[in-house]
Amino acid sequence: MTATLQKKICMLGGFSVGKTSLVKRYVQSIFSETYLTTVGVKIDKKAVDLSDRIVNLILWDLAGEDDISSLRMSYLRGSAGYVLVADGTRPSTLEVALSLRRRVEVDFGPLPFVLLLNKNDLREQWAVGEEEVESLRRSGWWVQSTSARTGEGVEDAFRALAVRVAR
Amino acid sequence: MSTSAGDTLEWLAGPFPDDPGIDRKALAGLLVELARNVEPQLRAEPTEVRPVDPRLEQLRTLLVGHEIEVLSRLSEIVDDPEQLAVAVGRVLPTAIAQVSSDARLGEVLAPALEKATQSSIRSDPRTLLNILYPLIVPAIRKSIGETIDETFQSFNESLKHSLTLRGLRWRWEAWRTGTSFAEVVLKHTLVYRVEHVFLIHSHTGLLISHVAAENASGQDPQLVSSMLVAIQDFVRDSFSGAEHQGLDTVRFGEFWLWSEPGPFATLVAVIRGNPPEGLHEQLRSVLSRIHEERPHALESFDGDSSGFADVEAHLSECVALGQRAPRSTERGFPWLVAVVGLLLLALAGAGGLRWWQNQRTWENERQLQEAKQQIWDGYIERLRAQPGIVITEAGRRDGKFLVSGLRDPLAVDPQALLSQAGIDPASVVSHWQPYQGLDPVFVLKRLEASLTPPPTVTLALEGDHIVAEGSAPSTWIERARTAGRMLPAGGPALDLSRLRDVNEGAIGKLSQAIRSRTIHFNVNEPLPAPGQDAILDQLATELNELASLASTMHVAARVTLTGHSDDTGTGTFNLSLSLARAEAVRALLKKRGVDPDLLAVRGAGQLEPLQTAPSEAARSANRRITFKVGIEEQR
Lengths: 167, 635
Description:
The structure holds two protein chains of two kinds.
Chain A lengths: L4 E9 L5 H6 L3 E2 L4 H5 L2 E10 L2 E10 L18 E7 L3 H18 L4 E6 L11 H9 L4 E3 L8 H13 L1
Parallel strand pairs in A: 1-4, 1-5, 5-6, 6-7
Antiparallel strand pairs in A: 2-3, 3-4
Chain B lengths: L4 H8 L11 H15 L15 H26 L1 H19 L3 H21 L1 H36 L4 H13 L3 H9 L2 E10 L5 E6 L8 H18 L10 E4 L2 E7 L3 E9 L4 H16 L1 H5 L9 H11 L2 E2 L10 H52 L3 E9 L2 E8 L6 H8 L6 E7 L5 H12 L5 E6 L2 E8 L1 H13 L6 E3 L3 E3 L4 H10 L2 E3 L12 H20 L2 E10 L6 H21 L7 E7 L10 H7 L1 E10 L2
Parallel strand pairs in B: 8-9, 11-12, 11-13, 15-16
Antiparallel strand pairs in B: 1-2, 1-5, 1-6, 3-4, 4-5, 7-8, 10-11, 14-17, 15-17
């Protein structure tokens, strides 16, 4: 085992925002996606090489549901940070992401997180307003538009989060 | 005192802040009284004491100034709860130590302590659990240890009387190595190996340390440990278990997954095979030691697993645990060994009783087989004694009885004999080749079958001879004689010496009489010459007698009437004339009650003359009918 730092990261997002496919190509995975529907969580690992050390992000991909109350909060216990994922073509999913964040904040206090606006390859269907994103950025949020299809922004997002949780 | 009384009083009465706490007048009076006792001259002097005299205050300061200061400091402490708390806190341990022997202290404190504990548990049970963990675990360990010891002992007792061969061997080993019998049994019957040990941070589910056994395959331990925690959470949530309840044992195929939770870290062992219960104890002991040595590092674990080398050493201890089956050095087959181990365990579990039962069953089976064999041997013996049966091979093969040999078709049927002996014909395979035996009985049977002796004849066995008795027609006797000559050498001979020819008896005499008769004819006449009716009557009587006699003697009699002529005329004419004469006589005899079937006719013409002389007398003698009698076997 190489001397590394491990951090537990939860992936949160509404139904069908593309969380799972977002990370699929970039992570080390040994469990099948059926875990998501059965156990409600699937665990992958993403190694991020920060110049001084390697941070292993242990990603807990939680089953995405628009109903926040059904989220198993026990899975978030011990998280060092989290990834909020929303679908840029469906503004309602951004609402879900915001309420998820509030929910996490209530139970676990402020934790480092990044917000990913996924499906930015579907630019013509993009529905999240630029000014809204800007206001989130101004309030200190790290927001990144990503594409599970092209992979755009995914590595950057994990790197940004790794830096934050390893501090 | 160097100062005068007046000075003192002056000083006392001087200007001084008013102090309501002291009755200055009374104090001044007291001082004056004191002075008068010391200096009697002062008694005469009238003394004026003013209610407010600064000197009095001065005196007070002189006398009790220090005490006042102390008192004011004390009262300050007493009045301020915070300062009082600090002060009491400082002496409380000593105070409690002082009165600790007093039983009342305990009584007084108990309700408060109980309330405090209850409230602590209500607010966060983990705190108390963490406090008690170092106490509870060794206590439980000790208790479990004792229980296991007891179990061992009772196990020992229960196995003591199992006198299996293996049991005895193990007992020998226990005696030789100085260990308990049960331990030896477990050693031989349990086969397992701890393949992976994970130390997982309970709070984050992150892997603190992982050790795998040599050759053990496994996925990324960091991912596995997180998933284990996730599944634990899932089960706990799904079945609404308490915080510290969870999956402690999971079995999947050939693996056991044992989870031992601690306050800050959980130890998960992946065990291949059939681990003993005592392994739980060993794992808990390792976990407990890790917690004792590194409580803070575990509690504040933040994902940096470097610096846990000592923990890894502890985990390696666990991985070293295991019981290999003897000679299981081949890789990839420990399961075969485990299965064998389980089988051994099952066998050993059944104990001696089972062994004895088996022994008895085997004994019964053996006896049954022996009995079967005896019956079979008896059958073969009887078969051997049977005439016309030659056994060339008898035995058992593949659980079936086997017999083969030669069998005379006239011999007894071996199958029928099987049923009599009580042997299941299905369990017997037999091959019989047909042959003719020389056994006298069979020779006799065969003769009887081929000669079909008349009822007047009996064939019987006398010694090694077949003897024919009674009377028979000569034709039959002739046939019998031929058959007797055809009998194989070495076998029984056919004795016909006691057989009489039927012709030699009454029937022979009668035949002789009939044969001697002659009927005469005139020239060219087909009918008998006159004056011969008496002869014809006599003939008819004799013929009827012959017929009845033949019938009683079971022989067939046949009388041939041959007609003859003289040599005058043509041969053809004479032939038909002679035949006509024979027919005429038959008709005449038929008329006299003779069965015509008994009589055959033929014409001999002039070819069988009685006399050949060319005289009338000779010609007359030649014109005649002759009779021939044949006694034959009945058809």
